[in-house]
Predict the 3D structure of the following.
Amino acid sequence: GEFTMIELAKEILDITGSKSKLVYLPLPKDDPTQRQPDISLAKEKLNGWEPKVPLREGLVKTIDYFDTLLKKQ
């Protein structure tokens, strides 16, 4: 489903346990009010592919991946 950038940021803060504060700034005049990527090419080339991983699950996997990379440095 769809989610706002605020919801995304709050989800990341929750998953990571970060104490970071969100800073709300005015949007630039040319900023799109809705972001919706076009996945039609992926659907076409990957035989009807559809995203199936829930947001939180995908974020957890992504954060774990980068955490592992950082620990290797």
The CA atoms of residues 7 and 33 lie 15 Å apart.
